[in-house]
Specification:
- The structure is a single chain.
- The protein has 229 residues and is an alpha/beta fold.
- The chain has a domain of 150 residues.
- 11% of the residues lie in helices and 26% in strands.
- Strand 4 and strand 5 form a beta hairpin.
- The N and C termini lie far apart (99 Å).
Length: 229
């Protein structure tokens, strides 16, 4: 399948040759955060790009997705961003051994604007991150009991593919969330002295002329007690 759209073309060396490339379009009836929902309805993710695992064969499939203005605005509200100016990803979807495991690997790029944790001024940043996400078609793979021993270096277990397929857009959105700076800070932003103490913005007492009293200084004037015989 030929590449469609006018987005940036992935480097020729980024993926193996002779792979099908497709550009996914927004899902119809995408999630509208202002629409009314019943108590039993689950809202569709803001950036939904569904992929049908039945499309997979011996060859990998390269998928290019990009969030439109509506999806970016909804994601900005979800992640408490001042702005999400751009979000796109180039992904490779491949089938694993036994046709039960599916791997999604690639990278996403995003331009985000967050509020400074000190001054609330806008802090712009550019993200370019690679990731790998695994999925399974076998419910038994994810229905087992949790292990008592947790290995932090072990790979995350695969996610079960839902009835509608793999939502590549939501996978990218989750990767965006974990890549955001949890404490964005504008250049030159300093905490007030009421927070840092009488010293400078780094919490030191270099700006305090009197200096802080050492709580152990009073112990220096005490004489050791004589032992009674």
């Amino acid at each position: 399948m030929s590449r469609q759209g006018g987005g940036p073309r992935a480097p020729a060396s980024a993926f193996p040759a002779r792979r099908r490339i497709t550009t996914m379009k927004p899902v119809k009836n995408a999630y509208d955060p202002t629409s009314a929902m019943t108590a039993h309805e689950t809202p569709r993710p803001e950036f939904s790009r569904l992929f049908d695992p039945d499309r997979l064969g011996r060859e990998d499939i390269i998928v290019e997705i990009a969030a439109n203005a509506e999806a970016r605005a909804a994601l900005a509200r979800r992640f408490d961003l001042l702005e999400l100016a751009a979000l796109s990803a180039t992904l490779r979807v491949r089938q694993g051994p036994g046709r039960k495991l599916i791997s999604v690997e690639g990278r996403f790029v995003a331009d985000v604007v967050q509020a400074c944790v000190v001054s609330l001024e806008p802090v712009a940043s550019h993200l370019d991150e690679a990731f790998v996400q695994r999925y399974t078609l076998d419910p038994a793979t994810v229905s087992g009991e949790a292990s008592v021993i947790v290995n932090p270096e072990a790979e995350d277990p695969p996610e079960l593919v839902g009835p509608a397929g793999i939502d590549l857009g939501e996978a990218v959105a989750q990767q965006l969330a974990v890549s955001l700076d949890p404490y964005p800070r504008a250049p030159g932003a300093c905490l007030p002295e009421s927070v840092t103490g009488a010293g400078g913005s780094d919490g030191s007492d270099s700006g305090n002329e009197k200096g802080s009293e050492n709580p152990f200084a009073v112990l220096q004037g005490l004489k050791p007690l004589k032992k009674s015989r």
